[in-house]
Every structure is written in structure tokens, then in C-alpha cells.
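Why this split exists: single-chain examples teach little about how molecules sit against one another. For that reason, every record in the complexes split bundles all components of an assembly together and asks for one structure covering all of them. Below is a record exactly as it appears in the raw files.
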Amino acid sequence: MNEYLAAVWAVVWKDLRIEGRTRQTVSIMVMFSLATIIMFNFGLGMAVNVNLDAGRNVSPALLWAVVLLAAILGLNRSLALDRENQVFDALLIAPVPRNALYAGKVISITLFTLLLDAALVVLFTVFFNRPFYLPVVLLVLFLGTVGYVAAGVLITSMTIQARTREVLLPVLLLPVSLPLVLPAAMATTTYISAAMLGEASWAAVQAPVLLVVAYDLLMLGVGFLLYQYVVES
Amino acid sequence: MIRLEAVVKQYGLNPVLRGVDLHVRPGEFVTLVGPNGAGKSTLLGIVATLLRPTSGVVRVGGWALPQQADRVRRHIGLVSHHALLYRDLTAAENLTFYGKLYRLDDPEARALAALRAVGLFARQRDPVGTFSRGMIQRLTIARATLHEPDVLLLDEPYTGLDQEASQLLDELLRAEAARGRTILMITHDLEHGLGLADRLAILHRGHIAREVTRAEIGPAGVYEVYAEVMAA
């Protein structure tokens, strides 16, 4: 077990080192998100005959749209590092369980995406004047991020050798992640709307949150079991 | 040490290897040459546990592939014309990372010792992206031998090297051979191929068409033998 965890930590350590030096993955995701939020906010402010409050009420759904698209950029960037110089081959001939490589990759990309989430919580709270910092919202964001990255790493590893991988990733990942994103967006919207009226309660979002947890467990399980077959030729 | 019997590899309906038989004894240096598309990289990929053969027997160190790939991986090192290194990590960080993956004791110290051995100790803190092709290839050898593998697999290691870097690589490979490692190299370069090897195997049309020892033909005869096989 210790050896397994050591392999997982080696992959995480390596990804954190590279990100610490280049700061490319997180900055790409944050820049994309910032541009999207500003454009949406600007459009909302300029629109004629629009109830500004009603527009802001859809901001939780926009949050998830931004997370999904920005995380794809992060996944592509992070997996591109392993593709460069064919490093992935060196990982595959190392005497470590393949799913330790999967676990390491999921942890490191989840950490990067959680940094993005933290930035988004601040930006959405400021731009849309809604309480995105509430603990339940943060929990849903965390759980949704884990499931999305778990699916993303598996699919990215499937497409890593394809010439059209940048196109294939969103085409495959977005439909697969719908069962995660719909309850996550529903829970976020419901909870924030209720909080604005002072009626926020866990009971109202329990069912969608449990769906998100179920998706996480399913996708992590599938990833652990299938990763070795996905990366073998 | 490496034994292949009737190994077949097909991609869809396209057979790349059509029944390869090859035996590399412990401590032997064998070079595999052949034209583009002969299946050299595919063969090396199978021995390196990266590819599964469609049929046939593959054994490395007595362990069967792909069934015992986990055991084989501890005993092989791969040097490719691709660096297999992270450009944004320093030389020492790259080797330390691989040291951790191979669960070596004190990976940092092993990494520094390996860098010293290939003459890159002074560049330990420089990102690999700033290295010349020759330096990268030396670092690649340090990476591949960090865990003291019994078998060294070389995939076109001379690609992109200038004459000086090629000579340095020759010296490093001679040193590895002198340590008793079993070496299987694939290359287009007949001169380098036979210059270092004990034996030359020519892969043509998906099988080993000819095997000759250096003692049999010498450096001058290698082109003749190769031309004969290609014309057959």
C-alpha cells in the first residue's frame, strides 16, 4: 500500500513541480474564465428590457459552464505534458500499477481545478452579487470537480494518441459528464436562490448532491478498473 | 535473457511482424536493423511491455509477456530518440521523479550520482528544455539506467545527434555493455549498429531474415549483407 501511495505521490509531486515552475495550467483556466465572466456580465448590463436580477439568477448555471470548459483546457494542457517527448511511454514501462498513474493524475488536475474553483467563487460573488461562498455550494463544487476530472483523465488518456485529441476530448467528455453537471447545477442554483430568500436548507439539495456523489464513485471506480486497458495497445 | 518465438503483431488486418524468432543471451549486445516499416519499433515496443503481441511467445529474463509485464518492467530500461523527459523539470528533478517511480532508496542521491556519471552534474538545476540534443541523450541514458536494469532497449538512439554527440553515446553504450547489461538496439545506422554490437539481426518483411556476428563479417561487410537481404 505504501508503495502504491508513493507512486501516486510521485506523479502528483511531478505535476505540482511543473505547474509551480510554468504556472500555465491554472493561469490558462483562470484567464479563460475571467474573459467569459466579464463578457457575460457586460452583456447582461448592456441588454435592454432585461430584469438584471433574473439574469443573475442563472449565474450558478454559468458557473458550471465555465468550470466545464475551463477544466477541458486544463486537462488538455496537463496531459500534453505527458505526451511531449513521449514521456507517457516512460511512465508506462515503470513498475507501478497503471491505476496509480491514474490516481496521481486525477489528484493533481483536481488540485489545479480546485484553484480555478476558488477563483471562480470570488469572481462570481463579486460580479453577480450572489453567495457562492456558502459551504454547501463549495461542497457541490468540490464534488462536481472530482467527478468531472475523474472522467476527464480517463477520456483524455483514451484520446492521447489521436491526432484530433483536442477536438475529441470535449466531444466525448461533455456528454459523459451530463449526469454529473445537471444535478450539480441544479443543486447550486436551488441552494443559492433559496439562500437569497433566507430559506436555504440541505434537504432541498440532498437528492442532487447524492447523484453527484454517485457519479463520482462510479467514475473513479471505472477509472481505476479500466485505466490499464485504456492506455495499453 | 530476451527470447521471441513466432511473434506476430497485427494492426487490424495489417500484419507488421509475421513470426519473429530472436534470442538475445545475457550480456549480449544485439542490433536489429531493417528498412522503414519493417516492424523494428513494434518489436521493441513488445519487449518494452508497451505493446501486446497478437500471438507468439515473448520472454524477458524468464518472465512471459504480457502476463508478467509488472516483473519485467523492473528489469528493463528504455532509451529512445524521444527524450522521455519533462522539459519543464530540471535534470535532477526528472531523475528524482523516475527514482521515486522505481522506488529507489534515496532517489535524490541516486539522481545526482547518475548525473555525475554522464557528465551533467553541473547542469543538475537546469530545465531539460534548455539542453542540447546530445545532452538530452546522455540524460536519457542516465534515466534509463537509474534503476540498474539488466536489459537496455535502445530505439534509434543516434537520431538527431551530431558526430561528437554520437561518439559520446558510443562511449556510454560501450560502458553499459561492459557492465554486463543485455542490450537490444534498433537502428537505421548500419555502421553504428555493428560497431558496438556482438550480433546483427536484419528484420525484413516482418521476420528476421538474417543474423550475423561482428566476427563473421566485420564493419565493411555489413552493407553487402544488408543489400543481399533487401534484394532477396
